[in-house]
Here is the input.
Amino acid sequence: MTDFRITPAAPAPSWRHAAPLKALAAAVLACATLAAQPALAGKKDDTLRMAYDQAPESVDPYHNNVRIGVIIAANVWDTLLYRDPVTNEYKGQLAKSWKQVDDKTMEFELREGVKFHNGEEFDADSVVYTLNYVADPKNKAVTQQNVAWIDKVEKIDKYKVRLTTKEPFPGAKEYLSTTAAIHPAKYYQEVGPKGMNAKPVGSGPYKVVDYQPGKSITLERNADYFKESPKAQPKIGKVVIRFIPDRQTQMAEVISGGEDLIMSVPKDQAEQLGGMPTLQMVTGNTMRIVFMQMNIQEGTPAPQLKDERVRRAIIHAIDRESMLKNIVGEGGGLINTICTPSQTGCTQDGAPVYKYDPAQAKKLLAEAGYPNGFDIDLVAYRERNQTEAIINYLQAVGIRAKLNFLQYAAMRDMIRANKASLTHQTWGSNLVNDVSASTPVYFAFGNDDITRDPQVRDLLNKGDRTIDSGARNAAYKQALDLIAQKAYAVPLWTLPAYYVATKDVNFKPYSDELVRFWDMSWK
Amino acid sequence: MLYFTIRRLGLAVLVALTVSILAFLLLHLSGDPALALAGEGARQADIDMIRKTYGLDRPLIVQYADWLWHILQGDFGTSVYFKTEAGPLILSKLKTTLLLGLGALAFALLISIPLGVLAALYKGSLIDRACLAIAVLGQALPNFFFALILIMLFSISLRLLPVSGSGSWQHFVMPAIALGYYVAPAFMRLIRAGMIEVLAADYIRTARAKGLPARKIVFKHALRNAIVPVVALAAVQLGYLLGGSVVIETIFALDGLGYLAYQSITYKDYPVMQLIVLLLSVLYVLLTLAADVANAWLDPRIRVS
Here is the structure.
């Protein structure tokens, strides 16, 4: 943008009669007369339109690890068991009943008369082929821990199967009711994961009628869905999920009526959108816990954290209650142990609660030999506003935390390389409602464990391998108490989720952040 | 002329190569692709397996050389995210991006030609200033912000256009405007300067003296001469528009090359990402080359220097 001011040799003559702004006017008019009304979403054409920011790499439930993949899977496929999202009770879905034969063996009696979307019949072969196929590491299921516990599945008769786990695995029911979708055996054998992605076939309440990778997926009500399923019969005729990467665009879509439902909306924006006449804001809790890790391994960049008094001081310094109310938002809940409250085996009982008490924090710091506080790094990757508030609270007691805000993968690299001091972590347990999917990840000497207390590890391992639920829960409780007593981590809260939906639809959120289309209806 | 073309061609190849090396390094330095591929819940064993399967455990230079060697043999690799061949994947998205780029170019010309002519005709006047203001705004306004303003105006207030998607031609209107507005000022400046020069020429004075109507003089005699350099600039700007579509396609959820580039960066899908960078830089280099050659052909002075 420079030389707009070149002066020609001769004075410019007057051109007052020259072409008026015809061309320009035409251009403006062209824009203004576009009579293209965007397709009206919703009730009128019995189509629910949902936008999501990430596209799954594959629709085959075993070959993606994104939330929308889990949502599609739950609506298009069924699992052997079903966990009621409200009571947390297990029910039979594709299995009529089941029993634990011994520590490593379960038997399932299967439902008869269930059909897949392509007409193929569901029976023992479907279960045997699917689970043996995905459990084989050669077949590269993306999230190995969802299937790696399966040793083998055998057919007893047409409607009876036996499942053996490699170790005693109390979490089995949880996986069998969430991630272990059952495919039609003949079809899957024929087309494999690639074909399953191109033309998905399940037995669930919705069937896929159109899929354009990276762009959209269209589901249609499965009118023949088996009546005995604990999932409700689907009511809404059609569901279109479009992948819109930009959040602002998603919001513009719901405002303009182009989309009916968006999720993971930031609190302030959800509140604004909820105030609009055609929209409603819906909030719910999630399974995602937020906490801070403290690196006390050999060679930690912050040796101060090795002192238990310093760790307690950090927890005392943060006003968790007021942060929950003012920043995190309704729907979230305080936690005092490092696990998701809805998880089997997770408990808050008996663990010490460190109240907000900056004076106490300062006292503890002085006792530990830091009357003037100290400098420390804090690494974070999401919910930056929360991290910043935490930094302010730490600052107030003299702990000068410097924020290092990274992408998740980069932050994980740093933690695993023993270069992190304080972390602002979140963990969603991959939707698994069992404590074995949360606490052990950070305290059982895995890659992300930066406290490494052998006593805690042993208790967690014991819980992971005990089938008897009383003894199992006791082991976990001891581990959780120990973590809290030694202040190995700062328990913060569960994150709330904000959804914005058209007012025409009945929508209920669940803490697993799973959008159940079969559960929705028009008002 | 031949020597000039060959020299420019050699330079072009070097540019494309440098860009691809830079893209490769940036992607690998910004975090371990194996970790990103494995996802949040992965165990170390999964990550190690991925690292080995994709050859990510080799030194960077070996990985790059290996990639280049395959490209030269026409093997464009496989997307590690979508698990399909990268070549066809990218080709399938090219149409949307070309449509968007051409639409943006058309829009840019549509506003810059009349505005440039107007500014030249009323040089120094309020109209000239107004045109200048429109141009400055176009370059100063980030296109993602301008895109949001367009959405608010045309989709939310007026309800004339769909917010996002690529289902119909209406879906392309706002993205083309948002993208085209940014390059319009360059054209406008060129046309204005050209027009001012031409309008001061003797033959225009003669045409006026003969009593030809003003409209005829401006559009038939003057603009036709002033517009020649614009053709060369258009080629270069089209290259810019293709690359600049990353942000715009992401905002409008247009399923094109730019959106694919955004996804491949997010998911560390490095084979796709590298191929897009290579394709875009080759396209850009080719268009620039075409512009250079056309200019040299039109104006012998360029060839000499």
In short: Chain B touches chain A through 77 residues (CB under 8 Å). The first helix of chain B runs from residue 2 to 29.
